[in-house]
Write a structure and sequence with these properties.
With 552 residues, this protein is an alpha/beta fold. The chain is built from 21 helices and 24 strands. Strand 15, helix 11 and strand 16 form a beta-alpha-beta unit. Helix 3 runs antiparallel to helix 4 (80-92), helix 6 (153-162) crosses helix 12 (341-348) and helix 14 (380-388) runs antiparallel to helix 15 (391-399). The protein starts with 5 loop residues before the first strand and ends with a strand. The relative contact order is 0.10.
Length: 552
C-alpha cells in the first residue's frame, strides 16, 4: 500500500510532499478549501482556514467530502481534532439566514423588511448580543427572528463573518430595469467551464467566479449580463481595461455602441451598460466622493466587479450599500494583500465557481507555461549601499540591481523572434531598461491613447519588446506575448505574480508555450519576497526552476 503525499497536523496545516506520484492530484483537491502558505522545493505547507471552508461550503462541497479528501491522501491518520473542527466550521455556514419578511395580505410595503433568522435561538441570541451587531437589529420578533435595519444588510454580513457565523443571504435582489442583452455566438460558443460558472452565479445571485487569466472571464461577465437581462454597471481597474470590455461586449453580444457608456477620468457617460473605473469611484475632492451618484444613476440589475481582488478598500463601503443588487466578482485569485478576503466573501458573495489553472491548460484553453527564478549577485559597489540602507530602501536597491539589465538582455537573445514583456516596479529602473533595449516604455504616465497604440503594435508584431510598469498587470489582452521578464515587483505580492504570469497565458496561434522569468538578487530581501510571491502559482501547480544567471 502506497502512503499518501499529505501530512495533516493538529494546527490545521497540511504538508504536501512535492515529489510524491499523487502530489498533483492532492494539490488540486486541497485547492478547494486550503491556502498555500509556503512553497520551498520539497515540502509545501497549506493551511485549512475558516474562510476557505466557508467558500467551499458555499460552492456546494460538504465537510464529509473535505475530510474524505484528507483521509484519502494522508500519510498518517488525520487528527480527530482537525476533522471535528472542519465539521463545526462548515456547520456554522447557513445557520443564520438573512431573508425578507413575508408581507401580510394586502400589505403594500416595498420592499419587504429584512430579517435575520435561525432555527437555533441560542445562536441568534449570541450574535444579537454582540456590541457591533445589536445596533444593526431591531426588537426581536420571536425566538427565531430579528428585524434588520434596512441599511445594514452588508454591514451585518461583515460583522457576522467576523464573529464566525457567516449568514446565508436569501433576501433576493432588486431586479433592476430590464434591458435585453443577448450573446451573439457567431463562430464561437461558451466553453463548458464558462457555462458552469454562469450557471453557478445564476443560482446564487451574487458571488465570485475564479478563472485563470486568459480563460475568458470577460465572456463569463457578458454571459452573466445576458442571463440577468438588466441595466449593468461594470467596475474595472483602468481606462484601458474599460475599452477592452467595451470592445469585447460589442463583439460578443447584441449591445451597440449607443448602449455602452464609459465613466472614467477621460469620459463621463451613463448608459444602459456603463463601464466605470475603480479610480473614478474613489476619487475625492475636499474629502467627498464626487462620483457616488453613478451608483444611483440607473436602476442597475447587475454590478460586475472585474479583478475583484483589487477592489479598493473605500469601495467596500459602497458595496455594502449595494446589497440589493445582483453582484458578480471576476478574478484569477481571491488572494488580497490587505487581508480583506472576508469582505469580498461578505459583500460581493462567496466563491461560486473555481477552475484550476492546470485543468484549463490541459484542455488547451490557456497556454502551458514554464516559470524560472534566475538568481543574480548584487555587485560589491551596490552591496555596501544595501548593507547600510534603511529597511524601506533595501528592497528597491536589491530589486533594481544593475546586473539585472545584462541578464535580461541574455534572456531576450535566447528567445530571439518572440514577443517579450519586461515588467517592473521602479520607474527609474524601467527607464534605464527601455533605453538599453531601445524599446517603448509604458507607465501610469503614458496617455491612454498612446498605451493602446503601443499595445496594438505589440499584438501585430510591429513591436517585439515592451517595457511596462504595473499598469500592464491587469486586464490587458496581449495574446501573442510568450516571454515575460520580471525585474522587480510590489514586494511579496502573490496577486501580482499571478497577474503577470497571466499576461502570457492567452493561447498562442502557433501552440507555443510561455516562459516566465523572475530575476532575483541572491541573499537579499528580493529573494525573501520572491518566495512569498510564488506561493499562489505554486498552489496552482506551477513549479519554479531555479537557475543562476551564469547558467543561462
Amino acid at each position: 500500500m502506497t502512503l499518501g503525499p499529505l501530512i495533516v497536523q493538529s494546527d490545521h496545516t497540511v504538508l504536501l510532499e512535492v515529489a510524491h506520484p499523487d502530489a498533483e492530484e492532492a494539490r488540486h483537491a486541497l485547492a478547494v478549501f486550503a491556502e498555500l502558505e509556503r512553497a520551498p522545493e520539497h515540502i509545501h505547507t497549506y493551511r485549512v482556514t475558516r474562510l476557505g471552508l466557508w467558500n467551499a461550503r458555499a460552492a456546494g462541497h460538504t465537510a464529509d467530502e473535505i475530510i474524505g479528501t484528507l483521509n484519502e491522501y494522508a500519510k498518517f491518520p488525520v487528527p480527530t481534532s482537525v476533522s471535528s473542527e472542519i465539521e463545526e466550521t462548515m456547520r456554522r455556514y447557513g445557520k443564520l439566514t438573512i431573508e425578507r419578511l413575508e408581507p401580510a395580505a394586502g400589505d403594500d410595503v416595498e420592499p419587504a423588511p429584512l430579517v435575520l433568522r435561525s432555527d437555533e435561538p441560542m445562536i441568534l441570541q449570541e450574535v444579537a448580543s454582540a456590541k457591533k451587531i445589536a445596533p444593526l437589529l431591531g426588537t426581536r420578533i420571536d425566538a427565531h427572528t430579528y428585524p434588520v435595519e434596512a441599511w445594514a444588510r452588508g454591514q451585518l454580513k461583515q460583522e457576522l463573518v467576523g464573529r464566525g457565523w457567516p449568514a446565508e443571504d436569501l433576501a433576493g435582489f432588486t431586479p433592476g430595469e430590464p434591458h435585453e442583452i443577448r450573446l451573439e455566438e457567431d463562430g464561437w460558443h461558451l466553453r463548458d467551464y464558462q457555462a458552469k460558472a454562469v450557471d453557478a452565479f445564476e443560482r446564487g445571485g451574487s458571488g465570485v467566479v475564479v478563472l485563470p487569466c486568459g480563460a475568458g472571464k470577460t465572456i463569463v461577465g457578458a454571459a452573466s449580463m445576458a442571463a440577468v437581462g438588466a441595466k449593468t454597471l461594470i467596475l474595472v481597474t483602468n481606462a484601458v481595461s474599460a475599452r477592452q470590455w467595451r470592445d469585447e461586449l460589442l463583439r460578443r453580444t447584441s449591445l451597440t455602441e449607443d448602449e455602452i457608456g464609459e465613466y472614467s477620468g477621460q469620459v463621463k457617460e451613463v448608459k444602459a451598460v456603463t463601464i466605470a473605473t475603480y479610480q473614478i469611484l474613489t476619487s475625492r475632492r475636499k474629502g467627498e466622493y464626487q462620483h457616488l451618484s453613478l451608483l444611483d444613476a440607473q436602476d442597475w440589475g447587475l454590478i460586475v466587479y472585474d479583478e475583484v481582488h483589487l477592489l479598493p478598500a473605500p469601495v467596500f463601503k459602497l458595496t455594502a450599500d449595494l446589497q440589493a443588487r445582483r453582484r458578480i466578482g471576476l478574478t484569477a485569485t481571491l488572494v488580497r494583500e490587505d487581508g480583506r478576503e472576508g469582505d469580498v466573501f461578505s459583500l460581493i458573495g462567496p466563491k461560486r465557481y473555481d477552475a484550476a489553472w492546470r485543468d484549463i491548460e490541459a484542455q488547451g484553453f490557456i497556454a502551458p507555461a514554464e516559470c524560472f527564478e534566475v538568481r543574480v549577485e548584487l555587485p560589491e559597489s551596490e552591496r555596501m549601499d544595501y548593507a547600510v540602507a534603511e529597511d524601506h530602501d533595501r528592497y528597491r536597491i536589491a530589486s533594481s540591481a544593475s546586473v539585472k539589465q545584462p541578464v535580461a538582455r541574455r534572456i531576450i537573445e535566447k528567445h530571439a523572434g518572440e514577443s517579450v514583456l519586461v515588467i517592473g516596479q521602479y520607474i527609474e529602473q524601467l527607464e534605464s531598461m527601455a533605453e538599453a533595449l531601445r524599446s517603448p516604455l509604458i507607465t501610469g504616465q503614458t496617455p491612454v491613447d498612446e498605451r493602446e497604440r503601443l499595445f496594438q503594435a505589440f499584438r501585430e508584431g510591429a513591436e517585439r519588446i515592451l517595457v511596462v510598469s504595473k499598469v500592464a498587470n491587469f486586464s490587458v489582452d496581449l495574446p501573442d506575448a510568450s516571454v515575460a521578464i520580471q525585474i522587480s515587483g510590489s514586494f511579496g505580492s502573490r496577486q501580482e505574480e499571478a497577474q503577470r504570469l497571466g499576461r502570457l497565458l492567452r493561447p498562442k496561434a502557433n501552440g507555443a508555450s510561455a516562459s516566465f522569468y523572475t530575476l532575483v538578487t541572491r541573499d537579499t530581501v528580493d529573494q525573501d519576497f520572491a518566495q512569498n510571491r510564488q506561493r499562489f502559482l505554486a498552489e496552482q501547480g506551477y513549479a519554479y526552476t531555479l537557475m543562476n544567471a551564469d547558467g543561462l
